[in-house]
Design brief:
- With about 400 residues, the protein is an alpha/beta fold.
- It contains 15 helices and ten strands.
- The protein has two domains: about 15-315, TIM Barrel; about 325-385, no CATH class.
- The chain is about 45% helix and about 10% strand.
- The longest helix has 27 residues, at about 300-325.
- Bound molecules: 2,5-dideoxy-2,5-imino-D-glucitol and manganese (II) ion (2 copies).
- One manganese (II) ion binds near residues 183, 219 and 289.
């Protein structure tokens, strides 16, 4: 009998409309599932304890629709939110599906396309503000190249920064309570995508005019595609106060963007990721940007959604058990985990430098120390496997 795991009010799980709405189309095959109406999505998500939903403009309002039709579609969504109690926790723009964006949106070589992209975001920022979405994500899926001859990267990054600065100015001018979160990805659909990793994005943000309102939205699959540790990228984003949102899913390294159910692949990685999110004071939503296997029918889609939540809750429970285990505290003390939190020399002063210079170190004895990390890591694996 599977163990019951219950969603807590503090969990704040959220899903993109495009996740449970994914119909299973892929580059090699047609859709395999019928369209799920937005109202049915919201009811289904509310039924499994979800807190919020996110959307691309075109997920919600028909591309190219008249203002009255957009308004009608938006009002219907607002009614569904009210009926289900779900919050709108993030909004974003589809700047990747329509052929007009084939050479990029903010970084298209065509200035008319660049202007249209910025206008498309402005229109959806108005919608995001109306729905109370606190975070606006920018995933630049088409911002990149196949051939380096096509764009001077320095110009592309300047246009990217210019667009974000202009849009941040729009948000401030309108008085919207919205923060921006950049979502890195190394490639796919473009041969190379700008801002490919959390590190690139964090460095880029510091060049922006309103950097204080711009953070990152790291995605498990994307950082893993780069061969990097998602956990380490999230930890640095938290350390820099820039984890504004997060895309949880799963991925096997060296493959296309799989967007698997959270917890279906990286068991140990996600144990430590969830422990970090739970212990770091991260107050944002736990957003799933994933979709069911193409093999699934609509019932399988809800198995997928429940599985994302179940796995997060399971990792959170195991992390609590791990941190409550006195053997773990003892092993951590031996390893010196808490010692790393102690400053080494503190701020520079000539006196501190002179004092350090005068110190002597018994390097041979220091070199002999064992840190006991095998024992500590095995305790983590024991807890993950339920054999602690
Ligand atoms: C893909 O990982 C991207 C798009 O689905 C969307 O723009 C963003 C929102 O989390 N993730
Ligand atoms: Mn992805
Ligand atoms: Mn994503």
């Amino acid at each position: 009998m599977s163990k019951d795991l219950h969603v807590r009010s503090t969990d704040k799980f959220s899903f993109g409309l495009w996740t449970v709405g994914n119909r299973g189309r892929d580059p090699f095959g047609e859709a395999v599932r019928p369209k799920i109406e937005v109202s049915d999505m919201l009811r289904g998500l509310a039924d499994i304890g979800v807190y919020g939903v996110s959307f691309h403009d075109d997920d919600l309002m028909t591309f190219g629709a008249s203002e009255p039709q957009r308004r009608a579609e938006l009002d219907a969504f607002k009614k569904d939110l009210e009926a289900t109690g779900l919050k709108c926790t993030m909004a974003t723009t589809n700047l990747f599906y329509h052929p007009v964006f084939k050479d990029g949106a903010f970084t298209s070589n065509d200035p008319q396309v660049r202007k249209y992209a910025i206008q498309k975001v402005m229109r959806n920022l108005d919608v995001a503000a109306e729905l109370g979405a606190p975070v606006y994500v920018f995933w630049g899926g088409r911002e990149g190249v196949e051939s380096p001859t096509a764009k001077d990267t320095r110009d592309a990054l300047s246009r990217y920064a210019e667009a974000l600065d202009f849009l941040a100015g729009y948000v401030k001018d309108k008085g919207y309570d919205i923060k921006f979160a950049l979502e890195p990805k190394p490639n796919e659909p473009r041969g190379d995508i700008y801002l490919p990793t959390v590190g690139h994005a964090l460095a880029f943000i510091e060049t922006l005019q309103h950097s204080e309102m711009v953070g990152v939205n790291p995605e498990v699959a994307h950082e893993t595609m780069s061969g990097l540790s998602f956990y380490q990228g999230v930890a640095q984003a938290i350390w820099q106060g820039k984890l504004f949102h997060i895309d949880l899913n799963d991925q096997r390294i060296g493959r296309f963007d799989q967007d698997f159910r959270f917890g279906s692949e990286g068991i140990k990685d996600h144990f430590f990721l969830v422990r970090l999110l739970e212990n770091s004071g991260y107050e944002g939503v736990k957003h799933f940007d994933a979709h069911a296997y193409r093999t699934e029918d609509v019932e399988g889609v809800w198995d997928f959604a429940r599985g994302c939540i179940r796995n997060y809750l399971a990792f959170a429970e195991k992390a609590r058990e791990f941190d409550a285990d006195p053997r773990v505290a003892e092993a951590m003390a031996y390893t010196g985990v808490a010692e790393l939190a102690v400053p080494t020399v503190g701020p520079y002063t000539p006196e501190a430098a002179a004092g350090l210079m005068a110190e002597t170190f018994d390097v041979d004895t220091l070199a002999k120390r064992g840190f006991g990390i095998e024992k500590l890591d095995q305790l983590a694996v024991d807890h993950i496997l339920g054999i602690a």
